[in-house]
Amino acid sequence: MQLLFDHLSQITGKSLKNAQLKPVYGGSINQSYHLKADNNSWFIKLNVLELESMFRAEAKGLSELATTKTINVPKVILCGNDGRHAYLILEYIHLNAFNKNSEIQLGQQLAQLHRQQHPRYGWHLDNTIGSTPQHNQWDHDWVSFWQQQRLAKQLQFLAEKGYTGKFLTQGDTLCADVGLFFNTYSPQASLVHGDLWSGNVAVNEDNAPVIFDPACYYADREVDIAMTELFAGFGCNFYRAYQNEWPLDEGYPIRKILYNLYHILNHLNLFRDGYQKQAERMINQLLAEI
After folding, report:
1. Are strands 117-118 and 132-134 parallel, antiparallel or unpaired?
2. Distance between CA atoms of 248 and 24, rounded to whole angstroms?
3. Where are the alpha helices (DSSP H) in the chain?
4. Alpha helices in 33-180 (DSSP H)
5. Cα–Cα distance between 228 and 238 in angstroms, integer?
């Protein structure tokens, strides 16, 4: 840790002689800490040295979100390694739960974030979803992007882990027919958070929304809204405010299953068999719509 402290002190000009380091619990991917020194506070993420690129992509995502001036994100202080661990140091934000007004504000601000657009789908570098590689090669065709760089990749990772049979066969069939869900809908390429579940959203001490732990890329904005529904935690005020700012297409209720399948397949890759039945149900539900 001493080299990390030295790097941080050099960057900030702050003395860390009386620093206090306390673990922060809640995540399943990284070790996290709250570092305090006098009246200064930082949030530190640690992982193995080989995952420094994961932190660098997260830092780039936070910086890109910050440039939109739409929703608060933690400021990136430092990203690097100490020879043993990779680390990402952010400003420390005391996080609180949502109330009605902050839910409304989040809905409005997320719609404003999604107004930040690009002529192509993807991003300028690959990142991760959890600790799974997420490929973001630029593509002018959203259907192709979602087929090849989202569903097909997750199915490939599952095959490499030994999954076989009807489950993967049906997944491949669905992947080949993804275009049928876009016969009357051509999404714009919006900047999305990419991993927008309730654990990655809170409010600061001013009750303003804060989003963090992004997996950014340019995509159909529905991918963010879909994930907010996957594990719940977002209230009706949020959805009403978003719809008032930028209404969703009428085909969203079916496509949200398609978009959330990506995350369930990823959870199956990360945490194994507990998610297979849910993935199978979603695949069958989507195939029934074709």
Report:
1. unpaired
2. 37
3. 2-12, 52-67, 100-114, 142-146, 152-160, 166-176, 222-230, 236-245, 252-271, 276-289
4. 52-67, 100-114, 142-146, 152-160, 166-176
5. 10
Number of H helices, E strands in the chain: 10, 12
**Under 8 Å between Cβ of 181 and 259:** no
**How many angstroms separate the CA atoms of 45 and 90, rounded?**
8
Q: Are strands 40-48 and 85-91 parallel, antiparallel or unpaired?
A: antiparallel
Going by the DSSP 8-state scheme, the letter that residue 40 receives in this structure is E
- Alpha-carbon distance of 44 to 208, in angstroms, equals 22
Q: Residue 275 has which token pair?
A: 């998610």
Q: What is the pLDDT of residues 92-146, one digit of tens each?
A: 999 998 999 999 999 999 999 999 999 999 999 999 999 999 999 999 999 999 9
Q: Are 184 and 251 in contact (CB under 8 A)?
A: yes
How far apart, in whole angstroms, are the C-alpha atoms of residue 90 and residue 34? Answer: 10
* Residues facing residue 87 across a β-bridge: 46, 80
What is the three-class DSSP state of 34?
Answer: strand
What residues act catalytically? 195
pTM recorded for the entire structure: 0.96
Per-residue pLDDT tens over the stretch 215-231 = 999 999 999 999 999 99
- In the structure encoding, which two tokens stand for residue 75, read together? 């400021």
Please state, in angstroms and rounded to a whole number, the distance separating the CA atoms of residues 127 and 214: 9
Closest alpha carbon to 284 in 257, 251, 263, 262: 257
